[in-house]
Specification:
Distance between the termini: 15 Å
Order of helices and strands: HEEHEHEEEEEEEEEEEHHEEEEEEEE
Radius of gyration: 21 Å
Helix content: 10-25%
Number of helices: 5
Number of strands: 22
Strand content: 35-45%
Structural class: alpha+beta
Largest sheet: 6 strands, mixed
Strand order of the largest sheet: 6-8-2-1-10-11
Amino acid sequence: MRQWLIGALMLVSFAGWCHPVSLTWVNVRINGDQITASFKVLAEDLIYFHHLEHDGAYNYAVDTLKSLAQKHSEIIEYYFFMIDEQGERIAFSLASVNTHELTGSEIGVMDLMKYSIQYKLTATLKDVNWEKLIFHQKFDDHKIGIPSVTFLSAYSNGDKLVADVELSPGQPFTLYSSNNQPEVNPSRLTSSYFSITPFGIRHELTLPYQEYQVLTGQAKQGFDEHQTLDYFNHYNPIVNGHTKLIPQLRGFRSLQAEIDEQPDPKSLIYLDLYYPSEDITDQVIITWSDYNWQWRWFESTILTIDSTYQHTFSRYQPVFFWERKDFSLGAKK
């Protein structure tokens, strides 16, 4: 009976093992009237956007992923676009697709986030003396079932105008051609997603590298796994019932849209933390207790077995509490 329950709960929690959000990155370079957009898309997006079925052991054939990667370019062309000053849509066309990271015969679902696909798209401006362009992404319109976020960096004739600006379906971004570009609020550059599954909690976090260094007290360039885990264990404790869960690091990477760019202090990094639980998650308490001039508050999306919540962690709201509702698979007795 317990084996049946565990198997059923694993099916319920499958979505939680993957990203609770679709993340993409794009570098836009404008030279004269020519625009080049370089996209980085995580391989996980392919199973969301194209409803790809696994082989029964949660593996995906690389040949199938490569084929879907080519097809996925149509979605990027359709749902990512710009509006010029006349209110006209500027259409992009595909220049190339790079799937060189997808190697071997199959990739497990737990490893999909380690692989990315690069797309290059081009467009032409009607007026080289443009003053502003409005960027949109509408990936949620494809009914993928999860939120989508795109991080935009833009250059004009070699000069960087903005870096890692967050685009979402309800949040377009206006890019100005000159020094009139307003400063982006740093709080927009941080995203936090918790997934509460039957056997653990996953926390995925993107933030600027220099903020990561300040928060963890890491002075040298690079990454210290022990120092990172020690920080989150102390300042971001998660309790299931009466048991404190110990974090494990599943992933750390610099998020650059173009793979030849060198990371800098303001570039975004991605952290993937997992808090395994020996008992089925029942009553979960997530606490954030580190408040300083860098992070006075931040918003989190929390995906649970039965619902999705938004919580703003701050000095006045340091705790999020969730209790599992009774349901047919594993209801409390």
